[in-house]
Amino acid sequence: MKVAIVMGSQSDWPVMKNAVTVLETLGIEYKTMVVSAHRTPKRLYEFAENADKEYSVIIAGAGGAAHLPGMTAALTWLPVIGVPVMSKALKGMDSLLSIVQMPKGVAVATQGIGEAGAFNAGLMASQILATHDITLQGKLKAWRAQQSESVLWEVE
Ligand code: RP5
């Protein structure tokens, strides 16, 4: 497995499944797991401390008091990409600030709130892996070219 996708709750899946889209398009292996920083703290430690034996990049999504990405980053040297999931009460602003405001010395690559952020997390993970994979580089360039071509010049 190359990419681990962890989320704080099963309820995050409708958003986090967008992270899978690019990975599947580019043929990148991944595994999805529910790991809650608050409800399953021992699982978080178990996962993060052993993550570098199985994975190269971690995508971590959570909502509200979203401590999963930051705590994961604290426990592993692997790059952690954070996805703020929309919360009911504060529409994801709480999630975003919880993830993005890391203390100096522990880094999380925070994406935007919600589905676009989750999609871009998958894209960012692919780009990180492509730095050491020439075949994947080719696939990524082709995907980007196709995206550019799909944008119409004229407004319909
Ligand atoms: C967070 O609390 C999860 O990441 C989720 O976004 C939010 C709500 O979780 P549930 O109460 O739906 O399980 O930990």
Please describe what this structure looks like.
The protein has helices at 13-16, 18-26, 41-50, 68-75, 93-100, 115-130, 134-149; strands spanning 3-7, 30-34, 57-63, 80-85, 109-110. The protein has 156 residues and is of the alpha/beta class. The protein has one domain: Rossmann fold. The protein has a five-stranded parallel sheet with strand order 2-1-3-4-5, sandwiched between helices. Helix 4 (68-75) links the parallel strand 3 (57-63) and strand 4 (80-85). It is globular and about 50 Å long. The mean pLDDT is 97. The structure holds 5-O-phosphono-beta-D-ribofuranose. 5-O-phosphono-beta-D-ribofuranose is lined by residues 8-9, 11-12, 36, 62-64, 85. Residues 8-9, 11-12, 36, 62-64, 85 line the site of 5-O-phosphono-beta-D-ribofuranose.
How would you concisely characterize the structure shown here?
This protein is of the alpha/beta class and about 160 residues long.
Number of helices: 7
CATH architecture: 3-Layer(aba) Sandwich
Q: Note the beta-strand portion.
A: 15-25%
- Termini separation: 43 Å
Low-confidence stretches: none
State the domain count. Answer: 1
Record keyword descriptors for this entry.
single chain, alpha/beta, Rossmann fold, 5 strands, 46% helix, globular
How do the helices and strands line up, and which of them pair or pack?
Blueprint: E1 3-7, H1 13-16, H2 18-26, E2 30-34, H3 41-50, E3 57-63, H4 68-75, E4 80-85, H5 93-100, E5 109-110, H6 115-130, H7 134-149
Parallel strand pairs: 1-2, 1-3, 3-4, 4-5
Helix pairs in contact: 2-6, 3-4, 6-7
This protein binds 5-O-phosphono-beta-D-ribofuranose.
Residues 8-9, 11-12, 36, 62-64, 85 line the site of 5-O-phosphono-beta-D-ribofuranose.
Family: Belongs to the AIR carboxylase family. Class I subfamily.
Function: Catalyzes the conversion of N5-carboxyaminoimidazole ribonucleotide (N5-CAIR) to 4-carboxy-5-aminoimidazole ribonucleotide (CAIR).
Domain PurE: 1-151
